[in-house]
Amino acid sequence: xxxxxxxxxxxxxxxxxxxxxxxxxxxxxxxxxxxxxxxxxxxxxxxxxxxxxxxxxxxxxxxxxxxxxxxxxxxxxxxxxxxxxxxxxxxxxxxxxxxxxxxxxxxxxxxxxxxxxxxxxxxxxxxxxxxxxxxxxxxxxxxxxxxxxxxxxxxxxxxxxxxxxxxxxxxxxxxxxxxxxxxxxxxxxxxxxxxxxxxxxxxxxxxxxxxxxxxxxxxxxxxxxxxxxxxxxxxxxxxxxxxxxxxxxxxxxxxxxxxxxxxxxxxxxxxxxxxxxxxxxxxxxxxxxxxxxxxxxxxxxxxxxxxxxxx
Length: 311
What we know:
Blueprint: E1 22-25, E2 37-39, E3 45-47, E4 54-57, H1 104-114, E5 120-126, H2 144-159, E6 166-170, H3 173-183, E7 190-194, H4 216-233, E8 245-251, H5 253-263, E9 281-286, E10 292-299
Parallel strand pairs: 5-8, 6-7, 6-8
Antiparallel strand pairs: 1-4, 2-3, 5-9, 9-10
């Protein structure tokens, strides 16, 4: 009995769902007659150059459409959009105002003036464990264990010896309380509260899950807000910034996971495949040229095992 193996190779580009060739290994194929290709129903053909045992299939259905607020760069042969934050120097210059007399010299000078010089370090902190029984946000306060977790996170951040510039936190109770505890270990660092970082449903996950199915309107409302948070806070440094910066964002698992996917230009629909512990630290680095690196994702190695939760 022949052994049948099936291997589906499909890839969806960021430019809105372009699909690459699919291939299925179906075992030994019968010999074909002459000619360059064999006709298939509907007029399609299988190239005769295909290796023995490899059946080439036409592209299948495209990827599901992305949410309207997510811009997908046109396909350029590269998977990285260098102007993802719309701060690429050339994108900041109005070329129509170019001085015809000085020409390229002036353009080079203006480009240099728009280039970022500093690196931004973004520390995304998930709030600590909280009371799941609370019906309203004000009742969803940190548990005793959650307060311990926040203390441990604050100590860890302080131990890094970095000069943090600010702590920006979600206005929800559990994030605000986590921030208050962390800030005790980072005296003098200013705190800023924002509604943009509140928890929500950023985008319909792919693949879907059965235990969590928000209404479509929630994705529509929350998704635009969380995307606005990404655009507002996650970008390369301003050209006027001279020194590297270290910023802390205390918010929620869904928000952090979505931000990580967007910053790395991974399909944002995959955010739910990531998992974050309470009080965990995720470290993103944004270089002056716009390149983004993920130093740590959901780090809780500084916590004793009996203090680690994911609720």
